[in-house]
C-alpha cells in the first residue's frame, strides 16, 4: 500500500495512526507531499488534491480519512478501529472529533488566506462557536474515561483534533476549561503511534 501524507495534516495523521495501531505501517510506503502545491503524483491518486490518500495493494485509490478506516477494517480485520460491538458509539465520537478537526482546520486555512480578520467573519465566528460547544461536550463524554489498550477511530480522531488545536490554535487554551479532557488527551499522546506522528 501507499499513503500520501504531509506532516501538518490532522487528517493524514489520523490515517497514519490507524495504520500504526493496526500493525500495518510496515506494509505501507509513505509518500510525503505538499497537497497545497498541486503535487502531480498526489493529483493522480486523488484528483481533489487532498491528503490522506491511500493506494491499496490492488491499485485502488482511496481518499477521506474516515473511509480509509472503513476500508482498513474490512481488508485487515485484526485490531478493529470500528469494533462491531460499539459501532454507533465509536462513530458518534468520531463525528465529534471530525467536526472539531474541521472547525479548527477551517479557522486555520481562512486565516492563512485572509489573515486574522477571518476570525471576525460570520463563518469564522461560527467555527469558533462550534469549537466552544464541542470541547465541553467532549469533556463531559470523555473526561471520566481512560482509553482502552486498543484505541478506536473515535478516540484517535478526537485526540488528533485536540493536538491540532495545540499545534495551530494555542490561543484556544482549551485545557483550562476542560481539564479532564486534557488529562485524557495527555494519556493518549503518550502512546508510540502519537509520539511518532507528532506535528512538526
Ligand atoms: N475530509 C478529508 C479532509 C482532507 C483535507 O482537508 N486535507 C487537507 C490537509 S489537512 C488537504 O490536503 N488540503 C489541500 C486542499 O484542500 O487543497 C479527510 O477526512 O481526509
TrEMBL record:
Domain GST N-terminal: 1-80
Signal peptide (UniProt feature, chain positions): none
InterPro entries: Glutathione-S-Trfase_C_sf (IPR036282), Glutathione_S-Trfase_N (IPR004045), GST_Omega/HSP26 (IPR050983), Thioredoxin-like_sf (IPR036249)
A Pfam family this chain is assigned to: GST_N_3
This protein's name: Glutathione S-transferase N-terminal domain-containing protein
Organism: Vreelandella malpeensis
Amino acid at each position: 500500500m501507499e499513503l500520501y501524507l504531509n506532516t501538518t495534516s490532522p487528517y493524514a495523521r489520523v490515517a497514519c495512526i490507524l495504520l500504526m495501531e493496526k500493525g500495518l505501517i510496515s506494509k505501507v510506503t509513505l509518500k510525503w507531499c505538499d497537497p497545497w502545491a498541486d503535487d502531480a503524483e498526489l493529483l493522480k491518486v486523488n484528483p481533489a488534491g487532498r491528503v490522506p490518500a491511500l493506494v491499496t495493494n490492488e491499485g485502488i485509490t482511496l481518499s477521506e480519512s474516515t473511509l480509509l478506516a472503513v476500508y482498513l477494517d474490512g481488508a485487515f480485520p485484526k485490531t478493529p478501529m470500528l469494533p462491531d460491538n460499539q459501532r454507533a458509539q465509536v462513530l458518534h465520537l468520531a463525528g465529534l472529533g471530525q467536526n472539531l478537526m474541521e472547525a479548527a482546520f477551517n479557522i486555520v486555512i481562512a486565516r492563512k488566506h485572509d489573515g486574522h480578520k477571518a476570525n471576525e467573519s460570520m463563518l469564522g465566528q461560527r467555527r469558533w462557536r462550534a469549537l466552544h460547544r464541542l470541547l465541553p461536550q467532549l469533556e463531559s463524554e470523555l473526561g471520566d474515561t481512560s482509553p482502552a489498550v486498543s484505541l478506536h477511530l473515535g478516540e484517535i480522531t478526537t485526540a488528533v483534533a485536540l493536538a491540532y488545536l495545540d499545534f495551530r490554535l494555542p490561543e484556544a487554551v482549551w485545557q483550562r476549561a476542560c481539564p479532564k479532557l486534557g488529562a485524557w488527551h495527555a494519556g493518549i499522546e503518550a502512546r508510540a503511534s502519537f509520539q511518532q506522528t507528532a506535528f512538526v
